[in-house]
Please model this.
Amino acid sequence: MIFETLISQMPYLAHGLAVAIGLLVCLLSLGLVLGLILAILEVYGHWSLRLACVAFERVFRGIPAIVLLLLFYYGVTDYIDMGSFTAAVLALGLRSAAYQSQIFRGAFLSVPIGQMMAARAMGMNKLQAIRDIVLPQALRMSIGPWTNEFSSELKATSLAYVIGVVELTRQAKYIISNTQGNILIVFGVVALMYFVVNRAGNWALYRLENRLALPGFEHRGDA
Amino acid sequence: MLLRVENIHKSYGAVEILKGVSFEMAPGQSKVIMGPSGTGKSTLLRCVNHLSPPDQGRIFVEGEELTAKNLNTMRQKVAFVFQDFNLFTHLRTVENVAIGPRKLRGFSKSAALDLAYKELDRVGLSDRADAYPAELSGGQQQRASIARALAMEPKLILFDEPTSALDPELTGEVVSVMNKLASEGMTMLVVSHEIGFARKAADEVIFMEGGKIIEQGPPSQLFEAPQQDRTRAFLNVIEHGGDA
Ligand SMILES: Nc1ncnc2c1ncn2[C@@H]1O[C@H](COP(=O)(O)OP(=O)(O)O)[C@@H](O)[C@H]1O
Ligand SMILES: [Mg+2]
Model:
């Protein structure tokens, strides 16, 4: 019976889900740190740095995720020893950095110029002004668009399946071939799992956005 | 001299906005700069603390020349109050005032907050300390931004049209704070068309037009007996409620 199969295979699915979430957290973290640095360099940096950041962004946004995965796994592992999970974090994380840098750049640019001016006028250097004044405001504005990035990347983790990361989608494939299980039901359960994680993440980010919202700057109605 | 402004020139693109402006300020003095819109008054103030570095000319504060190197320490001596306040929107009023002492003057968190409450009290805003800027009226925001400037314990405060973004009924509370500061001996360089403030608090009024100082003198002289036709014409406009 397919349901018995499903129940007996549930630990594998749960493990796959954990790997997918682990991959998601790693790639989003890499993308967050690098994306912020890229955005700051793009908005406040010397033109040569700006150019380098734009080039990075264009490259990583211009190549399909699956090609990046294959490139990093087969291209780079020949020279640097790394497992498929690391290759997936790098490929998807760098790509996410390119997307996230766009989110943060937009947020930095939407902080009124007077904020930077007032900070500089009181004697803050550029870095202090960015860190203490502009960044806290920009980050608040980034949460909304960042929620979309979270969703896209959650879905993108399933692509890591092509380089052998045993995440949720690959576990589903194993279960189907090992048990001659019903494809539709197994993938139905997997789809539901992705969906639930996605909604939970969106809900948490929405809560965060509202909690950090400043009086006079709430920009979303009730969900 | 507390401030010496020496032959400042500044162009934006091909247009020369400031065409050689010089003046001095002694400690405790207040000066009011007036002049038609677009004449370079804001540009001049921004040159004084190098928010827009001048193309030519020099600025001295307490005898020390302002350069790219000492910029951030010198700016702590020269506070700036903006026309549109520019309070930090993510910080509560008291945090806006405390952040300078905290981050720039080496104050502990509690010492910075103590000072901030004291400065808020000076501008009559103690009861709004926990509000965010967006929850304050324009007049309150401007008073908070004056408190933020005061918390740096500056030698000189530059004011760029501090009341012109306010509804007329709110200008009074800001002007009275500025009057009080002037009487306490704060050195103030104020771009403003508030004739009442100029008469009461200014030691000297500077009239600017076309990027130059056209006329300067004590308020009584400049307002009662202006020497230049352009000064007279300008005063006519603002005294009769027109928009100069
Ligand atoms: N950052 C800038 N870039 C280009 N032009 C500017 C800039 N700031 C001011 N200007 C121009 O300089 C002139 C003087 O402006 P401003 O100093 O603001 O005059 P005021 O404060 O006397 O009204 C105006 O024509 C204005 O358009
Ligand atoms: Mg102006």
Q: What stands out?
A: The mean pLDDT of chain A is 92. The radius of gyration of chain A is 21 Å. Residues 2-44 of chain A form the longest helix (43 residues). The pocket of magnesium ion (ligand 2) is lined by residues B 41-42, 160-161 (CB under 6 Å).
